[in-house]
Design brief:
With about 350 residues, the chain is mainly alpha-helical. The chain has helices at about 20-30, 50-65, 90-105, 120-125, 125-130, 135-140, 140-150, 160, 165-175, 185-205, 240-250, 270-280, 285-290, 295-325, 325-355; strands at about 40, 70-75, 110-115, 180, 210-215. It folds into two domains: about 35-215 and about 325-355, 3-Layer(aba) Sandwich (Rossmann fold), CATH 3.40.50.620; about 240-325, Orthogonal Bundle (Tyrosyl-Transfer RNA Synthetase). It contains 15 helices and five strands. The structure holds tryptophan (TRP). Belongs to the class-I aminoacyl-tRNA synthetase family.
Length: about 350
């Protein structure tokens, strides 16, 4: 087998590296030359975005956009059927995501929002990409294994097993080189990097090897004490009203100790609430806990509710304004789809050419 050495502008070391250490170095490079980065990231339209998304990733996207990075947000509608038979309420959830993005400050003049189903060239990359990974590699992906374990389906679909390959198509169709996601997505990013590297080795350099940018924000727990998730009915949606927010936080699991402390190891539920207030108030969680003192869970929940509602009030006001003009909101997606089509078609042309295929 002939191996073509890829000439790359990014590092191609094969040794495992710590994504945490890597994040600091990446931030320096972003600050120096934001224009050399293109972010590709997204949220499956399976529910409402919540506070966990906000502090874990949404805020960061707006920050990167404002630094001058080219931010592309994908609404992966096709991937909804990875672990369910049909895509329910797809149009409603897609509108909701668009409203959230716009209200949070994603600026359509600088950033792009698009969806899978509108970009055929992206999906065509699946075929050459599937040839670059082995079944054994797909079978060992820990995040896929976890999704299979939690799936509501009794059999594992081919789409589930090849999900990381489709995600590689998402990222590489636009030649994204920076992917800001949570830790659970690291194995998927490795698949993307592997596919990019193998394609480049086999056919000549077409793709960047994208870097993962791990979110620094710690995980927020849902109101039931497990990971906050849009499909588990344990989240505080960004779009909730102030009253709904109060009710949801009131129902959150706590413990019987009246003295409020910040100790995530020993008191995960109470600490997650303290952290949520601290993030909203931009304060140290130990200080927030100390101020509540021996007020117990009721005082803690009052503090959290006020902090969340105050922090989100401007966002919610903007969201309500956008909701009055869905024609405009949907036009943002249409324009984004157009740009994503242009990018993905150009990439597919390069892929065909590199593979020596007819056009
Ligand atoms: N897999 C991501 C998730 O479950 C969503 C996603 C789809 C994504 N395509 C992507 C994230 C491309 C980053 C880049 O949250």
């Amino acid at each position: 087998m002939t191996t073509i050495t890829a000439t790359t502008t990014t590092t191609t070391t094969a040794e495992p590296r710590s994504p945490e250490n890597h994040a600091a170095e990446l931030e320096h490079r972003i600050a120096r030359d934001p224009g050399s980065f293109r972010v590709l990231t997204g949220d499956r339209p399976t529910g409402s975005l919540h506070l966990g998304h906000y502090f874990g990733s949404l805020r960061n996207r707006v920050r990167l956009q404002d630094l001058g990075v080219d931010v592309i947000v994908l609404i992966p509608d096709y991937q909804v059927i990875t672990d369910r038979d049909t895509a329910e309420r797809l149009a409603e959830y897609t509108d909701g995501l668009l409203l959230d993005y716009l209200a949070l400050g994603i600026d359509p003049a600088r950033s792009t929002v698009f969806c899978h189903s509108a970009v055929p060239a992206l999906n065509q990359l699946m075929l050459p990409f599937l040839s670059l990974v082995s079944v054994a590699e797909l079978n060992r992906n820990p995040t896929v294994k976890d999704e299979i374990a939690h799936s509501r389906q009794s059999t594992v679909s081919g789409l589930m097993l090849t999900y990381p390959v489709h995600q590689a198509a998402d990222i590489l169709s636009c030649k994204g080189n920076l992917v800001p996601v949570g830790r659970d997505q690291a194995p998927h990013l490795e698949v993307t990097r592997t596919i990019a590297r193998r394609f480049n080795e086999r056919y000549g350099r077409v793709f960047p090897e994208p870097d993962i940018l791990l979110s620094a924000a710690p995980l927020l727990l849902g109101t039931d004490g497990t990971k906050m998730s849009k499909s588990r009915a344990n989240s505080v949606p960004l779009s909730a009203t102030a009253d709904e927010t109060a009710r949801l936080i009131k129902g959150a699991t706590t413990d019987a100790d009246r003295l409020i402390t910040y100790d995530p190891g020993a008191r995960p539920n109470v600490s997650s609430l303290v952290l949520l207030a601290a993030l909203c108030l931009d304060r140290d969680p130990h200080e927030v806990a100390a101020e509540i003192g021996d007020g117990g869970a009721a005082a803690l929940k009052r503090t959290v509710t006020d902090a969340v509602n105050t922090h989100l009030a401007p966002f919610r006001a903007r969201r309500a304004e956008y909701a009055k003009d869905l024609t405009y909101v949907r036009s943002v997606l249409r324009a984004g789809n157009e740009r994503a089509n242009a990018l993905a078609e150009a990439t597919l042309d390069e892929v065909r050419e590199a593979m020596g295929a007819f056009r």
